[in-house]
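Case study B.
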Amino acid sequence: MVALIVIFISGLLSLFLAFAKKPWLVLLTASAGLIAGGISLFTQFYYQYDFIHYEGLKFDGFAVAFGLIAILFTLLVVLTGYSSFKDKPQHTGDYIALLLFSLTGALCMLSFTDMFMFFLGLEILSIPIYVMAGSNKDDVRSSEASLKYFMTGAFATGVLLFGIAWIYGGTASFKLDEITAFIYNAEGTHSSLIYIGLLMILSAFLFKVGAAPFHFWSPDVYDGSPHIVTGFMAAVVKLGAFGAFMKIFSVTFAGLHDFWAPALSVLAILTMFVGNLSALKQIRFKRLLAYSSITHVGYALLTIIVQSPDSAFNLWAYIFSYGFSTIGLITVAIIIHDEEDRIEAFRGLVRRNPFTGFVAILGLLSLAGVPPLMGFFGKFLVFSEAITQYPWLVAIAIINSGIGIFYYLRMVILVLQKEDDDKPKTPRHKVPVLQMIVLAICALALLFGGNMLIF
Amino acid sequence: MILASIFESGVSIQFYIVLSTILFAIGVLGVLIRKNAIIVLMCVEIMLNAVNLLMVAFSTYFGNGDAQVFVFFIMVVAAAEATIGLSILVLLYRNNRSVDIGLFNKLKG
Amino acid sequence: MSVQQLVPLILLFPLIGGIINGIFGKKLPKALVGSLATLASTLSFATALMVFFQLNEPVKIHLFRMIDLEDLRLSASLLADNLSLWMVLIITGIGSLIHLFSMGYMKHDAGYSKFFTYLNLFIFAMLILVLGSNYFMLFFGWEGVGICSYFLIGFHYSDAEKGMLNGIAARKAFIMNRIGDLGLLIGLFLILSQFGTLEYQELANIVTVDKILGTPWMMFGITMCLFIGATGKSAQIPLFTWLPDAMAGPTPVSALIHAATMVTAGIFLVVRSNFFFEHAPMTQEIMLYIGLATSLVAAFIAMRQNDIKKVLAYSTVSQLGLLFVALGMGAYTAAIFHVTTHAFFKALLFLGSGSVIHAMSDEQDIRKMGGLRKKIPLTHLTFLIGTLAITGFPLLSGFFSKDEIVGHAFSHNVVIYGILMFSILLTAIYMFRMYFVVFFGTFRGTHEQEHHVHEGPASMTLPLVILAILSVFGGLLNLPGIWLKGQAHWLSHHLEHNTGGLNLIEAEHADNGITLMLMIIAVAVCLGALVVCYLVYGKKQNVPVEDAELSGWQKISANKLYIDEIYNFLFVRPTEWLSVVGHKFIEIMFLNGIILGFAKGIGASGELVKKWQTGRVNWYILWMVGGIVGLIVYYLVKI
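Model:
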């Protein structure tokens, strides 16, 4: 709770400090707020002085673990985005504050105990992103992305609320533990209200994480939004959505697992194939990243389908590794700064900026799941947990990993290749210090984080 | 005859469910069919209002006030969403001189 | 500082040296690069000496865990005991001298910093190999020294004339070693599956104390696999042909890697695993005969080689064969003793030959040398000492170490002893032949070369002198009982204690009469060869003739027993044929069809899926509605 307040206030402060037209001040406030929030969250976890029940919010181990990486990812996104925010000093405060507000929404989504806070968290998470997606005001693509995200998002909100209402009709409560108890007590004799409500909520979640056939918004929105926002959506928004997804479906609706798991399995498979196949022929980087993220959602859904005590940790590890790769790659894309955001612009990167190219390769290989990078361990944990219960699902996931390697390696080769001789050489990119730090953190995490995951 | 039995037993909860589902479906259909972004926005509001109606009905049915509070939350959030939505539309209008969502298909493939 | 702290330092110095030279080497001045590398190696040696004097009992140093699964725990840990430290002293000591030598020898080479980087990394990998406390670490070092060795064999890959050949030599070493490494790896898997651990100490305990053994076949399998690994790295039949070709590398490399240290890794492996080999008599027999055959074959081939380094290379192979004979008889300490002295005199000989080659402006053919005795006296003197030491001249180091092995052979089997003595005789003959041809007679090179002949700088001569001294006195380490009653066999006693499993070996002490007799025979063989060679090559100044004029056994020897050709016929050709067939029929007709078809299918479906993404938000919402409807249909069907 302290963390929530600290982050919110630092967001407010950055909003107002922007009037001073000193972008670094905003950055400092926001970073300080994020770090302070992270520390307060961590101390709460470390000393375990009661996970205070705030009537609606409860910061248990799950919330703290997911919340910490959400804060970390936001910090990285803020750091990496600072240089591009700086071009518009009058708006730096707005952007950073919106990111922080969105983060508070994510934290709510990780710690809610009833449907009120869940719904509010979801909206607090989403609404700033609708704005952020369109923050490149002169760019038609950006505003189009904003519109598409808003339209589909508002629609999904409606579906979610409808689902909540049906669940409420079935169980007469919004509190998660009461719903859980109700479902367990009335084994096998539920009214159709609960089933329909559950499916509605499931649909809304599938929309939010971007799983087929609710994924169509994500390539367009990722593509049109500014890089920073794409990074934030891929890392933090996805994390919040998955956290809530797991809270509701692995705990609250666990009693109905036999009902929803087969449907979700089919959709997970569909998601993997749709993401992978669409990614094959992409020429724009963020679009590729979007399809790749859809595929990864398909893999991550395995943790929710499989009911086991380790599922939460596996999901955490998976998102942790995925977030570092994505943020690293987004940072690289920002450094390359290609107007059209073509994948082609990555050609010969490692020869121009060796370190940047190196991080790009690490990120791509980690997404592809090549050991010993972190992404491999994330995938390994997820698949090895699922393989006893759903061997066929894992088999399909592995086939998809195989397909995925194609486009990841194509990019790796591109990064390593020489530039065409007949075209003018691209000059060496300038890398601001902050982005260098982000790259270094991502590289370290990708290289050595995997070992931490399995211990 | 049927109508008479309905009036005798009072309006049972099923009717609210059916009504709000129909309202919701109308909203969904509107979102699907209409091209004007403002109307689409209104249709989303219809969906939310269908939810509100259902919530209030259940609340009365169960005799607890939770859902009525929830409805206020929904209304507040819907207002916020409408604000954001309208401002996005203003932005779009500035760039495109139109709010026909069928025109916005630069991002695809 | 305690042993616990010192031992990791031994490893650290060369690693740091290698990293610094690898990253900044190109920008630093040459003198600094060379000194840094030499200093790293020397510091390692000094640290090893400190440890050597402090060490009372085996010390295991745990560094970090590498793999930690339920039934597989592998840790990076070091084991400092007398055996590993002895090897460390050899490696770092000789390594330092060779580093020093290289500073002069490689002075004009373009890849100066690269060379020292590889050398330091080699030292590091070799130290891991000997210091590791389990087979896993050994394997790491094993592959590490391997890769440095390939790099250094192909070091002059961009050379205009010989670049391609150097590359091919490196490739040959790589392929031959791969076969051996596979054997080693399978051996490790077998050990792991049988005993569940790879730690030497635990394995030694299981085998020697608890007496829990596998079936005889299992033990045979394990030891054979380890031995196959050893034949690869230590150049035994049938995998020995890479070592002579490896002489393509710079001469200091030949001295360090392909004579003194890396090629003895196989010996070290067998000595380390002695507790296994003691329970696998069949492997020991095989080892014995393979060693014997290698020793003989290599000595025979060396008789008519005319490249100064090739002679030494075959001599190395022959000596390694001798070592495997010793191992086959269970004479582990004798083998280590000979490894030590061999490291001294073979490094000396290689460095001497390097000095000769340096003086001769990179000429390696002994037929074009001659009469160098007067021109480079210091090199001549040290080379003579090396030659005498390797041929077993009385009281020099080689005399004692060979004598020990020969003594074991005599008590083992007289026939083996006879064959061994024949091989030693051949060794003496070709070594003296080379010595006299190079240093006696008249100069046969070009005028320009003659004008240019000179002694190397001090950095080259100093290592020669030190190694010469060691070659002379190295025998004192393990004097036989006949000379000093109480103090004899110092090295054997030193190694017997505290070494995992080794203490189950009782050194065989032949009685003095036999020892004396064997010594006299050995001396007679050596001196006989010396006299004959002096008469033929020194006095009459016979020069080896061109290869084309040779006949009979000489031709076979000069052509290396046609082993390369045989291998080519037996393995290379069929493999090439098979791969052509596989390419034409299996790959193009069969696999390509499937794989390309699959890829095309995926590509086409990619296009299809892309089309769904129409860009119209209504469609997206329609899909979502479709999804929800689908889910509700699912519910209706399911319930």
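The first strand of chain C starts at residue 59 and ends at 69. The remaining cases will be described in the next quarterly update.
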